[in-house]
Design goal:
By secondary structure, this protein is an alpha/beta fold. 31% of the residues lie in helices and 25% in strands. Bound molecules: ligand LLP.
Length: 431
């Protein structure tokens, strides 16, 4: 199986996190997002342990909430001792209303508005990751208005190609995020920030991409970032106290994907950073990473019920389910791959199907060319694996479909963390 929280019972029923997927589908209905809380926690601990082993108290992983943001997730992050990064006041508000200590939130985003800055400062967000010069001035002005200094990190674009798909590459010089080093703009950006009295410039941030498997991507990033830190120290006397290198470790969606050895990679990154800083005569900065996908992806599974099956002889078979691009737009957006399984039984005689959704467009495909039981029929349950990241968080009400509930699985029990959206919920804001 793709992940060790997925297995089949002797009669062929699919089990996820030790529970029958069919029993869960009957109890909670479909489409259904399942989230293995035990796996979320063990993924957090993998980062926390690796950080502690390699940096002692000098590092913190921040969970990138954009991967899956709802209150229960922040309660889990608080109880595990994870930091959090947020990209909108919606995410901040969610964390705040879950009781997450907001002073541990790092606030990202390239398009923060004045209202966002005001809200975040009002509630006491710990650190702003400032994307651009305009935001520098906004944050400075708001801090001065409140008579305080706001801790910030400055987002730099290091000019790294992480070799992932284009829509989620964020490191190369021409992306919309951060301020590029290559053009000299990053230097001017830091220089300006240091002159602003409302800011406490704690350090630098960068993020080069997502679903990255390049083994040395963070080492290459550090070569550039520590080089920059060194020139800032030599020319401006500025000491980078915090260095945040973003998220990005890839996860396995299909059998052919590699399994990233994250603790091993973190050890190598730590050794590299220590060496670079020693060589440059710089103190080791407090080290941050922002994993999202690798915390929640393999903790997720989506369960659907087949509504209809269509066979167009000589062309195609479709299994059409009760969800689709509204709850998982990732194939439509990125041609993302997924592993799809019959949940009721192990398929003996198989056929190739396109797993299609119920939205009114031909492009509404959750995954093309998947191997399912040839006799897959209406009423069968289908599981799409590894949907914990960027599924619920990217879902929409397209076609006025309600979002599925998020049901958490913990120690053999299940409980609802997010309710199913009803038709009344969908109309709630319509006047
Ligand atoms: N930090 C920053 C500043 C980011 O922009 C991201 C992801 C992360 C951390 C977390 O990266 P992760 O560890 O999850 O790779 N919707 C796309 C992914 C977009 C990622 C955006 N930024 C997808 O479904 O693949």
């Amino acid at each position: 199986m793709l992940s060790d929280n997925i297995r089949r019972s002797p009669d062929g029923t699919l089990f996820f996190a030790g529970q029958s997927v069919i029993a869960l589908a009957k109890r909670h209905g479909t489409p259904l997002y399942l989230m293995d809380e035990d796996r979320v926690r063990s993924n957090c601990r993998m980062y926390l342990d690796a950080f502690r082993r390699n940096f002692g108290d000098g590092a913190l992983p921040l969970y990138a909430g954009k991967a899956a943001s709802f209150k229960q997730m922040y309660r889990i992050m608080a109880s595990e001792g994870m930091g959090v990064e947020a990209v909108s006041i919606g995410e901040i508000y969610t964390a705040l209303s879950a009781g997450y200590p907001v002073e541990r939130v790092y606030f990202h985003g390239d398009g923060k508005t004045e209202a966002d800055v005001r809200f975040a400062m009002e509630v006491g967000v710990g650190c702003f990751v400032v994307d651009n010069e305009n935001e520098l001035r906004l944050v400075n002005a708001e801090a001065l208005r409140r008579g305080r200094r706001q801790k910030v990190l400055l987002r730099i674009t290091p000019g790294i190609d992480p070799h992932t798909y284009e829509a989620i590459n964020t490191g190369t010089v021409d992306v919309k995020f951060g301020v590029p080093l290559e053009t000299g703009q990053a230097f001017a950006f830091v220089q300006e920030a240091l002159l602003l009295p409302g800011l406490e410039v704690a350090g630098l941030h960068c993020h080069v991409g997502s679903q990255v498997f390049d083994e040395d991507v963070f080492e290459r990033t550090l070569d550039i970032m520590v080089g920059f830190m060194s020139s800032l120290y030599r020319t401006l006397g500025f000491v980078t106290r915090e260095l945040d290198v973003g998220g990005g470790y890839g996860v396995r969606y299909v059998e052919q994907d590699k399994q990233a050895d994250i603790p091993g990679r973190i050890a190598a990154v730590a050794a590299h950073l220590k060496q670079l800083c020693a060589d440059a005569g710089l103190p080791l900065p407090f080290f941050l990473m922002e994993p999202g996908r690798s915390i929640v992806a393999d903790a997720g599974m989506t369960v659907y019920t087949v509504s209809t099956v269509k066979h167009i002889p000589g062309f195609k078979r479709y299994a059409i389910v009760d969800g689709g691009m509204a709850d998982n737009p990732r194939y439509c957006l990125y041609r993302a791959q997924y592993t799809v399984l019959n949940a009721d039984r192990e398929a003996a005689d198989t056929a190739v199907f396109d797993l299609a959704g119920r939205c009114c467009e031909s492009g509404d495909i959750i995954q093309p060319a998947v191997t399912l039981a040839k006799d897959t029929a209406p009423g069968d349950r289908i599981a799409v694996c590894t949907t914990g990241a960027y599924n619920y968080s990217m879902s929409s009400n397209y076609n006025r479909l309600g979002r599925p509930p998020v049901v958490m699985l913990r120690g053999g029990e299940s409980y609802t963390a997010v309710l199913r959206e009803s038709v009344e919920d969908i109309c709630a804001l319509d006047l």
